[in-house]
């Protein structure tokens, strides 16, 4: 039996059980209908499993609709606010972009279950990266759970509305302060967690009312020993430098930034 069959069988058993318990027959909400338009069967069942287990108590509206994932605002049983990131299994964009370099790999062509596994791996990787960073005291959303392609983390925002991304911050904010704080978090990620954010930009930094700066979207983060780490760090710092320079910040040169991020060790 391949992966897909196993999941199917598991789902059939689960559905049967749910039906018996009359729970699956509850009146479907509008949200359920919307979910069903967007997600494949296995993903839907994963969401329902998480809801039945109380890992997700309520799933509210969508926060973000990306090409590769959708993020929902949710709450767990304890009433804590969550951001639930659901990686899309059915997105053609995902296959083109993120799969790009493996799409010709026969392993991924022959067995569709492998594509699902591949997506699950991204979700798992993001959770693991969040855990490592969070446990090291780096400002990232607190990780809660991952099941297949569904990841739960701390919601960054107030009363259901998320904080702005760095890229969305009002023009009257102190960008010098944000520059310093952003670099500090990048340095923390490097020095405390031994990691480099694989996709660092003004679109993956969130700014709280403090303002405090949080890094999000860590699926592509790598350890500092990874062969791509240096290149990813340079690319990220260059991207941030361009952003802050446009905002009128007197930015440092790349060498200085690299020294700062690495803690002057190299
Ligand atoms: N923990 C979170 N709390 C609140 N909003 C979030 C959180 N994580 C992500 N978001 C929102 O969802 C968007 C997409 O999330 P991200 O992890 O960057 O995925 P991707 O860029 O792959 O679509 C972010 O730009 C942000 O607006
Ligand atoms: Mg992002």
From TrEMBL:
Concerning SMART domains, the annotation shows: RIO (SM00090)
EC number(s): the record gives 2.7.11.1
* Pfam families assigned: RIO1 (PF01163)
Q: Could you confirm whether the keyword Metal-binding appears in this record?
A: yes
PROSITE patterns in the record: PROTEIN_KINASE_DOM (PS50011)
Q: Which UniProt keywords apply?
A: ATP-binding, Kinase, Magnesium, Metal-binding, Nucleotide-binding, Serine/threonine-protein kinase, Transferase
**What molecular function does GO assign, one term?**
protein serine/threonine kinase activity
The EC category is: transferase
Listed under catalytic activity are: L-seryl-[protein] + ATP = O-phospho-L-seryl-[protein] + ADP + H(+); L-threonyl-[protein] + ATP = O-phospho-L-threonyl-[protein] + ADP + H(+)
Protein kinase domain boundaries: 57-266
Read off the Gene3D superfamilies from this record.
Phosphorylase Kinase, domain 1 (3.30.200.20), Transferase(Phosphotransferase) domain 1 (1.10.510.10)
Question: By its UniProt entry, which InterPro entries does this protein fall under?
Answer: Kinase-like_dom_sf (IPR011009), Prot_kinase_dom (IPR000719), RIO-type_Ser/Thr_kinase (IPR051272), RIO_dom (IPR018934), RIO_kinase (IPR000687)
**Which family, according to UniProt?**
Belongs to the protein kinase superfamily. RIO-type Ser/Thr kinase family.
Q: What is this protein called?
A: non-specific serine/threonine protein kinase
Please name the source species: Caldiarchaeum subterraneum
């Amino acid at each position: 039996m391949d992966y897909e069959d196993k999941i199917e069988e598991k789902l059939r058993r689960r559905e049967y059980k749910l039906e018996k318990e009359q729970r699956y027959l509850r009146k479907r909400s509008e949200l359920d209908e919307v979910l069903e338009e967007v997600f494949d069967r296995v993903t839907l069942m994963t969401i329902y499993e998480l809801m039945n287990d109380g890992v997700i108590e309520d799933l509210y509206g969508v926060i973000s609709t990306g090409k590769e994932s959708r993020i929902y605002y949710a709450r767990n049983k304890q009433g804590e606010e969550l951001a639930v990131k659901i990686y899309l299994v059915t997105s053609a964009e995902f296959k083109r972009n993120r799969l790009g370099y493996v799409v010709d790999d026969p392993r991924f062509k022959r067995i569709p279950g492998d594509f699902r596994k591949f997506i699950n791996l991204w979700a798992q990787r993001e959770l693991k990266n969040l855990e490592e960073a969070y446990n090291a005291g780096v400002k990232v959303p607190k990780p809660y759970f991952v099941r297949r392609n569904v990841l739960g983390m701390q919601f960054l925002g107030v009363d259901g509305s998320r904080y702005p991304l760095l890229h969305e911050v009002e023009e009257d904010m102190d960008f010098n302060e944000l520059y310093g704080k952003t670099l500090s978090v990048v340095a923390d990620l490097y020095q405390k967690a031994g990691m480099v954010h694989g996709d660092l930009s003004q679109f993956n930094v969130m700014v709280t009312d403090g303002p405090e700066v949080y890094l999000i979207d860590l699926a592509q983060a790598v350890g500092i020993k990874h062969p791509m780490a240096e290149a990813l760090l340079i690319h990220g710092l260059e991207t941030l430098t361009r952003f802050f320079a446009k905002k009128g910040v007197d930015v440092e040169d790349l060498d200085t930034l690299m020294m700062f991020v690495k803690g002057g060790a190299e």
